[in-house]
């Protein structure tokens, strides 16, 4: 073991050393976070994790040959030396044997892929773009991006679609993540981001977590929850399942899926009835309160208790605990947002915070926990169908003029708003969209109603996909471009706090692999727009992004690579290079609406879109598990993670009569699949849960409904009508797709065939193997 800088070892007083550390200190030790398990000529590259919206700091270990071979936690103030199972194993994908290292191409889907040169792959793609647009118009070709891309690349996705492809059809897989929260935030506050930094959680007296399995989906964020608890804060968890965090809560509200807005309306009803609102704050800072108060009067606990399937007393308890705290905070995630009334669910939580005056103060506020690494930054700069860089509206004439001036095009050349990701799939089915480029997404696993998705993609005349592994979606394409992983390029992401952090390049990509930026710019050049895409690297893109965001709500102009390296992250808006950034919003009581006030919104509860019946009496809900990430294209290839969680399962209540490991068929109106049972009292008797990281025939999203929120267009993943029945054997988990000549990585194959559920996912349930 060697210290990073032995010369800076501090003389320490042995008399004040904690027990057991005398020998360590007497040897001239320094704080443990400055020690690294180095090898000779090793380089430690500071960067951030590629996975969730917490964006933990880490060091990638690079050997003398310039190859990433390991990881160490970094004492960044986001994570303080902590990493979750995914973060610890993330480095293994960099030099993984499944990496794509040459473009793949075929003329039709009946042919096998063959490796081709970059020239052939690019030229063929451009020829197909020109053919389809020449025959059917510019909007017959679409582009789907991703929220795990660096912000520089998301900026390029939006610009490429509108300037090079000249199509209105561009969207991204963040549409499946956080857009309900975005829509609610814009309606209420005029800005799309969390109002408070994570560190404010440490200062709160009451913390409400709604629809977020923090312990598994955002493990390192739990340090903030425990810190608040250590100070004496109360904890309320609203979730149909008794997750690891819910087990520790003062109150766990196990409401029926799809009833969130009815519950929060009832909580606010009690707060109003008991005189616990902050009327002075509302009068000074909000509009719409009279209408909201009149609406929640129609949601007494007796009514909402019947809707939600929870005790009336629990609604009253939550109301008094939240409103009676000196400082209260609410954070939520996909469990609230993945609904056909996802925006409205979020608005009811905003109403609760505003009505109690818990906005814009240390320890008091409102936040949304981003699922993807750049779920926040990924929608800020133009790859979302209705937005331009800086969060500008593509329908606003002045916003259009501003961006056209920066891009050097006429306003008449800028397409109007397009449609959402799921709507684009329906347009593929109807042959309205006939060609598609996909970047950093895997809709064959991540979109609902797989049969519809497969039909839509199969109807495409041409489909190209960017990826570093051959995903299930890429395996169905005509052209696959092999691109870099996060450690082979540099760029920025904005985490769930809207803190912009810098990822650093740790190694050169394998021979034959190119950055997404290079591929996009090469395609643009061949489409005749090369002068608008003369970007040699991420830094040059970021400089244009800064200019394009200047003066907007999403202002990045004052953020530079150098400042990010120096500070460890800056929260936008940051209008000048002297500005410190804005970790906490609304401290002066003003929002980003022209009148400076919070615009409260009336919400009426309505049932989920997939109706219950005698044939389908149960709720199917879906979510993540600690070992895997989203569609699993990365994590299902990492041996330790596959060993920890080799397959999906169905969580069922003991009242259904199954034993652990029994084959259980889950049936919805979209189809059926068979999973091993994980029998647990930690789920409602009327609800079953299946994690969604795997493809057919074990794909939860083969069963979910493609109903959308009318405002955010997010799918209703978290509730659909279902039934369960005994089956003979579980469906087998398929191996991840591989390129021609590659074999499935053996380290990930053995445990994948295990027919049983994990023995103890986060300690829940009664699963025991015999």
UniProtKB/TrEMBL annotation:
The keyword Metal-binding applies. It holds the Pfam family Molybdopterin. SMART domains: Molybdop_Fe4S4. Residues 1-28, 372-394, 728-770 are annotated as: Disordered. Residues 42-98 form the 4Fe-4S Mo/W bis-MGD-type domain. InterPro entries: Asp_de-COase-like_dom_sf, MoPterin_dinucl-bd_dom, Mopterin_OxRdtase, Mopterin_OxRdtase_4Fe-4S_dom, Prok_molybdopt-oxidoreductase. Keywords: 4Fe-4S, Iron, Iron-sulfur, Metal-binding. This is Molybdopterin oxidoreductase family protein.
């Amino acid at each position: 073991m060697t210290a990073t800088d032995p010369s800076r070892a501090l003389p320490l007083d042995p008399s004040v050393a904690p027990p057991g550390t005398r020998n360590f200190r007497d040897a001239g030790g320094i704080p443990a976070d400055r020690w690294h398990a180095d090898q000779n000529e090793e380089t430690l590259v500071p960067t951030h994790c590629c996975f969730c919206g917490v964006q933990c700091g880490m060091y990638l270990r690079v050997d003398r040959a310039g190859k990433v071979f390991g990881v160490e936690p970094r004492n960044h103030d986001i994570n303080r030396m902590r990493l979750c199972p995914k973060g610890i194993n993330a480095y293994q994908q960099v030099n993984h044997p499944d990496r794509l290292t040459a473009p793949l191409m075929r003329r039709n889907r009946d042919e096998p892929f063959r490796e081709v040169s970059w020239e052939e792959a690019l030229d063929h793609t451009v020829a197909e773009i020109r053919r389809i647009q020449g025959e059917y118009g510019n909007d017959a070709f679409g582009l789907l991006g991703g929220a795990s891309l660096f912000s520089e690349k998301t900026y390029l996705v939006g610009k490429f679609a509108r300037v090079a492809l000249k199509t209105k059809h561009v969207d991204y897989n963040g549409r499946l993540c956080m857009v309900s929260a975005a829509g609610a935030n814009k309606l209420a506050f005029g800005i799309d981001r969390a109002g408070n930094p994570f560190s404010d959680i440490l200062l709160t007296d009451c913390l409400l977590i709604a629809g977020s399995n923090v312990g598994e989906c955002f493990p390192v964020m739990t340090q903030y929850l425990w810190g608040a608890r250590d100070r004496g804060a109360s904890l309320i968890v609203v979730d149909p399942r008794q997750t690891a965090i819910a087990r520790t809560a003062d109150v766990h509200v196990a409401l029926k899926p799809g009833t969130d807005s009815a519950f929060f309306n009832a909580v606010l009803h009690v707060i109003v009835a008991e005189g616990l609102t902050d009327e002075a704050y509302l009068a000074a800072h909000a509009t719409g309160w009279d209408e909201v108060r009149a609406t929640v009067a129609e949601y007494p606990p007796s009514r909402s208790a019947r809707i939600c399937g929870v005790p009336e007393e629990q609604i009253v308890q939550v109301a008094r605990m939240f409103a009676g705290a000196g400082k209260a905070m609410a954070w939520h995630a996909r469990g609230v947002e993945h609904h056909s009334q996802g925006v409205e669910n979020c608005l009811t939580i905003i109403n609760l915070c505003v009505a109690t005056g818990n906005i814009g103060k240390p320890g008091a506020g409102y936040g949304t926990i981003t699922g993807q690494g750049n779920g926040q930054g990924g929608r800020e700069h133009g790859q979302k169908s209705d937005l331009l860089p800086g969060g500008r509206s593509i329908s606003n004439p002045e916003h259009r003029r501003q961006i056209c001036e920066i891009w050097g095009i006429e306003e008449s050349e800028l397409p109007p708003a397009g449609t959402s990701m799921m709507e684009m799939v329906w347009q593929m089915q109807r042959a309205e969209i006939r060609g598609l480029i996909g970047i950093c997404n895997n809709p064959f696993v991540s979109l609902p109603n797989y049969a519809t998705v497969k039909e839509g993609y199969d109807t495409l005349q041409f489909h190209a996909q960017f990826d570093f592994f051959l995903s299930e979606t890429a395996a169905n394409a005509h052209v696959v471009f092999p691109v870099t992983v996060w450690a082979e390029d540099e760029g920025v992401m904005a985490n769930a706090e809207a803190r912009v952090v810098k990822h650093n390049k740790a190694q050169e990509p394998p021979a034959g692999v190119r950055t997404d930026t290079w591929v996009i710019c090469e395609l643009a050049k061949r489409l005749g727009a090369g002068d608008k895409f003369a970007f040699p690297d991420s830094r040059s893109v970021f400089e244009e992004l800064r200019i394009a965001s200047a003066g907007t709500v999403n202002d990045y102009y004052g953020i530079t690579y150098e400042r990010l390296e120096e500070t460890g992250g800056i929260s936008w808006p940051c209008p000048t290079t002297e500005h410190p950034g804005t970790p906490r919003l609304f401290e002066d009581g003003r929002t980003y609406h022209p009148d400076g006030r919070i615009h409260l919104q009336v919400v009426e509860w309505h049932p989920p879109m997939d109706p219950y019946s005698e044939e389908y009496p149960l709720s199917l809900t879906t979510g993540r598990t600690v070992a895997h990430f989203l569609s699993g294209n990365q994590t299902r290839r990492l041996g330790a993670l596959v060993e920890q969680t080799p397959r999906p399962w169905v969580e069922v209540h003991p009242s259904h009569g199954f034993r652990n490991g029994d084959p259980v068929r889950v049936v919805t109106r979209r189809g059926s699949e068979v999973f091993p049972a994980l029998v647990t009292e930690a789920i409602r008797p009327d609800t079953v849960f299946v994690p969604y990281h795997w493809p057919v025939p074990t794909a939860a999203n083969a069963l979910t409904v493609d109903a959308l929120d009318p405002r955010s267009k997010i799918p209703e993943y978290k509730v659909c009508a279902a039934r369960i029945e005994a089956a003979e054997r579980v469906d087998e988990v398929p191996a991840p797709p591989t390129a021609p000549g590659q074999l499935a990585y053996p380290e990930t194959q053995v445990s994948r065939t295990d027919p049983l559920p994990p023995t103890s996912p986060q300690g829940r349930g009664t699963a025991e193997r015999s």
